[in-house]
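Can anyone check this?
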Amino acid sequence: MEQQFRNIIPPFGLIDLLDVLIVAFVLYKLYGMIKDTRAVTLLKGLLVILVAALLSNWLHLNALYWLLGKTLTVVAVALPVVFQPELRRALEHIGRGRLFSKSKRLNDEEMQLLFQDLAKSAILLAKTKTGALIVVERETGLNDYVESGIRIDGVVSSELLLNCFVPNTPLHDGALIIRGNRVVAAGCLLPLTERSGLDKELGTRHRAAIGLSEQSDAIVVVVSEETGLISLALGGRLERGFDFSSLQARLEELFASKAQGLSDYINRRNGRQ
């Protein structure tokens, strides 16, 4: 009996364990490279088709299995084209030696400085009625939109933000994307919302801000060049009429950590008791 069990399951040694760990590490890094892109959604769709094909084969649904099999064949041929940006980005990461890099979370002081610089820049731009579109990335990655702009990779400061929106310059009409406390790119192209019934006073910047907020959890700050009004787009909604204090407070509220939010909730409950 023991011999039969050994024949069914081959011996698992130290080399096999190392092999599994290497494969797991590579898959983890590959996922980290694509998690900030729309490729994750495409992979989920591919996984659904694959599971459906396996189920149709198991249930002997021959016609459906044939159709899904042909679909998978076409998808396999199209994958290099569909994932071309992600494949290029992965090779660039490996070539630059960034495979082992880790993202850095901001501490409270860095977050405070970020909010102050952002609010200060928005107020100064509003006073001169200089149009601006500033995107602050949260959980959903925005690499697809970063690639459409010009890479900057500079620490956020009010001076840098103001210089990126100088009128009649290449970066003025696009969006600026902030990740952490760094400006990763400027002059980026954002998707326009397809919603009808919006206020006719809203221009392309506002529609782009709403469009991106519909497709991600990013916070988008907009300065109107017609009215100088400061707005904030979140979750497909547009909040308008901010000043320095209210904009900074709103950003602090939105970027509060989950742990802090839970702590405040517990404190509020304890205060009511």
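Reply from J.R.: I decoded it. Residues 257-273 have pLDDT under 50 and may be disordered.
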